[in-house]
Amino acid sequence: MTHAARARRIAQPVDDVSPAPSRADPTVARAVRMLGGAWGRHAATGRWWSPLRVLLALGSFTLVLAFVQKAPCADANWVANKQYTHACYSDVIPLWGVEGLDIGAVPYRDHAVEYPVLTGGFMWLAAGITNAVDGLFTAFSDVQIFGLVTSLLLTICALLMIVGTVGAAGRRPYDAALAAVSPLLIFHAFSNWDLLAMTFASCALWAWARNRPVAAGVLIGLGTAAKLYPALLLVPIIVLAWRTGRLGPARWACVAAAASWAAVNLPVAFAYPRGWREFFTFNIDRGTEWDTIWYIGHYALTQHETSWKPPGLVVAGLTGAAELGVAVLALRAPRRPRVAQIAFLAVAAFLFTSKIWSRQYSLWLVPLVALARPRWRVALIWQFSEIALWIVFMLFLLGLGDPAHSVPYGWLLLCVVARDLMLLALGGLVVREMLHPELDVVRSGGVDDPGGGPYDAAPDRARSQPVDTSEDFKNSMSAP
User: Fold this and answer.
1) How many CB atoms lie within 10 A of CB 49?
2) Are the CB atoms for 239 and 331 separated by under 8 Å?
3) Tens digits of per-residue pLDDT, 312-322?
4) Which of 186, 188, 361, 407 is buried most deeply by CB count within 10 Å?
């Protein structure tokens, strides 16, 4: 590209690259009125402020707010249950001591860690940096430094997650703004180490969108070695392979995912089998949590606020049935669904049927909903319902140790039901757009699937007619 052509491209209106949310989404348009209104029709992005850099700047501001949100708990001086009253609890702080990182324990070798191996390695890396710089910051305790180092590493992960989401969005980079300024990211960016797996998952979707099935598979495998949920990205890949008849890319992605997962797991499994097994045995033996359908069902039948361990085969069977239902829906849709739509439904189905739904797990859905349905109103309402659940959950835990300030389970149950209904509504809207693709804003302009990679504009076994890219179809897709 010549310098003149590059300059003309830089000076193009934003709409030539991607519709800015302030102009494309009515909710955002109303919100930015206090800042002077929507981005101008003929405004240029400038030579340096590309959409990616704009979104990284927005994401950085969001992560600063996330750090401030956790700051009251950073010193581990949780007197008077500060971690609950300030809703600033983070697993990072107590696990500094619980996992033996404060005494130099090596995960899996010296202490059985309840997380997959890459998350354990991430914790060990942060602990190593902490011990290396501890003497330079004598005004801070080692746990404070560990929390800061972990937050900085997770910040890098979050920014890479935004980069991956932008890449997976193709010519609609501003769809990733829904992830970059996510309210849920403010509350849960540093609650645990989930951003590590989210980075691998988002970059895997980016690699797949760039028609790199092996790279996507490697990233899925590494993500699964950090948290299990990235393995669910294989669901849309396999389903779309069946619908298109193109099995090669899916086969390579699955083989690469298995190989990369084994490459990082088998050495630890052979060297420290007891420590490596802890993640699996811990989760198998773990009881249900308060905000799962398993606990709610048990509570409805017994009226007892006690955890219980449902049969593992029953949980696995229900989860498998939910994923099969997502696959069948995708196979029976009138037009081949987009990768992000199926991925969002697959992860949401897993959360609903799992016996463990830690509050920060919902963060997994944020980049997926940005790609699956980049409309802000319902997505934001769902995220605020998650935040309300987090705050009430903190007050509920406060009541377990301080009955005088207790919040009864009924209030928590009400928030759980509200969150579940909002997520079901969001999932229902995704399903609606799968069944009626003319309502899908991403397919406006007659495009097929920006994140489809090998399956973008591919033949569709379920369609007897080719994809319609006529002007009438484009106009119908662009209609509000």
Assistant:
1) 12
2) yes
3) 899 999 999 99
4) 188
Of 369, 351, 366, 335, nearest to 455 by C-alpha is 335
How much is the mean pLDDT over the chain? 88
Residues contacting residue 187 through CB under 8 Å, at least 6 positions apart: 66, 69, 87, 386, 387, 390
β partners of residue 44: 13
Query: What is d(CA 360, CA 157) in angstroms, rounded to the nearest whole number?
Result: 15
Measured CA to CA in angstroms, residue 225 lies from 50, 207, 218, 281 at distances of: 33, 18, 11, 16
CA separation for the pair 250, 391 (Å, rounded): 41
According to the 3-state scheme, what is the secondary structure of the chain?
Answer: CCHHHHHHHHCCEHHHCCCCHHHHCHHHHHHHHHHCCCCCCCCECCCCCCHHHHHHHHHHHHHHHHHHHHHHHCCCCCHHHHHHHCCCCCCHHHHHHHCCHHHCCCECCCECCCCCHHHHHHHHHHHHHHHHHHHHCCCCCHHHHHHHHHHHHHHHHHHHHHHHHHHHHCCCHHHHHHHHCCHHHHHHCCCCCHHHHHHHHHHHHHHHHCCCHHHHHHHHHHHHCCCCHHHHHHHHHHHHHHHHCCHHHHHHHHHHHHHHHHHHHHHHHHHCHHHHHHHHHHHHHCCCCCCCHHHHHHHHHHCCCCCCCCCHHHHHHHHHHHHHHHHHHHHHCCCCCCHHHHHHHHHHHHHHHCCCCCHHHHHHHHHHHHHHCCCHHHHHHHHHHHHHHHHHHHHHHHHHHCHHHCCCHHHHHHHHHHHHHHHHHHHHHHHHHHHCHHHCHHHHHHCCCCCCHHHCCCCCCCCCCCCCCCHHHHHHHHCC
Angstrom CA distances, 178 to 58, 162, 199, 351, stand at 10, 10, 16, 21
Q: Which residues contact 109 (CB under 8 A, 6 or more apart)?
A: 271, 272, 275
Q: Residue range 148-152: average pLDDT? A: 97
Q: How many CA atoms lie within 13 A of 76 on its CB side?
A: 17
Which two tokens mark 166?
């932008």
Neighbours of 133 (CB within 10 A): 13
The values of phi and psi at residue 107, to 5°, are: -55, 140
